[in-house]
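G., the chain you wanted modeled:
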Amino acid sequence: VIQRRDSGAVNFNRSWSQYEDGFGFLSTEFWLGNEKLSHLTNQADYQLRVDIELSNGASFYTTYKYFRITDAWGQYQFIHIGEVESNAGTLISACPTNMLYGPCSCQATCEDPNGQSGCNSDCLGSEGCICPAGFVMQGSECINASECECFVAEANLVIPSGETSVNGDCTQRCSCMNNRLICEDYTCSTDAVCDVRNETRQCYCNEGYDGDGETCESLYTDCQAVKDAVHGDGVYTIMPTRWPESPFNVHCKMHGDEGWTVFQRRTDDDTSFHQNWTAYKDGFGNSRNLWLGNEKLYYLTNQNPTKLRVDITTLDGTSLYSEFTEFQIESEDTKYKMNKLGSRTSPSGYAGYYLSYNKGKPFSTYDQDNDACDTFNCAEKHRSGWWHSSAWCSTCYSYSYCYYFQYSSSCKSYCTYENLNGVYNGGNGEMIISYPNYYCNVQFVEMKIR
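Predicted structure as tokens:
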């Protein structure tokens, strides 16, 4: 006898451990205990007999030919019931082998052990015979997951078809292809770590390295490093020295044996450069029009001595460029001030000729006015984030030039001779200008460093 109820003297609303160990009194009401019952039903083939007496005195019994429950690891599940005999008018429904009665649910299969491909229903309606934990559906039957072709015993899991699993210490990688398990040795690079990220265990390259975890290569620090590795123009992932965040992509342009990192580009009016402080700090745009971001530019210009190159195409289609022997900006603490700009060399024309007037100036945007001009907001008037100057803000001009903006009914002024972040095909004072009144409404700009 494993259970008796005849008077209600013993409370059967008990905890897991009490049902596991057993409770009550053998002479009256009791539960023998799931652990004892598990050992009993697994040492030999057992039958189960249930005797019931109703409140009107009527009694009946039901006998099941086979009876077995799992152990504690399987949560003592009722998994084997066998054929039934009874003198009752209505029989208790019996479930097939390896199934138990319960709420219908979506079940795993060998091909889809995680239930990612829709619901594989194990029964109809709200209740019925279902597969217990540790079992999967195969047709209309339930089989132990260990019988699946892609079962990995060490990890006690079934790998879905077409997927891969790596073991706990990243020394073996197993794949399930066409319901066939393929396992191979797996080793992390010395520059990688075995880890679980986004629920996926594998080898991951350390910070400053890129690769699949088995092979990790040191990330480029800038486009000159890309050029030194004998690569051409393109988009590459870099990791500047001391950069505190994740690696990021940059456009690299190669001129001779020099690799230049593009931080600004203008080709059309698709992207507005009248952006706020945060946008200029983080960067914005696309492959045609972009600002890399002042924070990235700060780290790039402070890891090594840096040169600046400015390429423009004027309104009449003439291509010009200038290089500057030195270029550096400071951190956000000093508003990304342009603290270094060397002499202009290798010029073709006068591109960027007056950039020296922007040296020593902090960066300004319409929502962070750092130009020290009390008369107006230079970034707002020029419609651009830039190293604007207050040198001319107290001057009132009456005549018109392409780099002048109107700030009162009778006065015009300007904050920069070079406004390479201005409005594409914009009006006076807002347009992209370089070497003012000669290169107005510039049609192409590219600023880059090396």
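The mean pLDDT is 91.

Shout if anything looks off.
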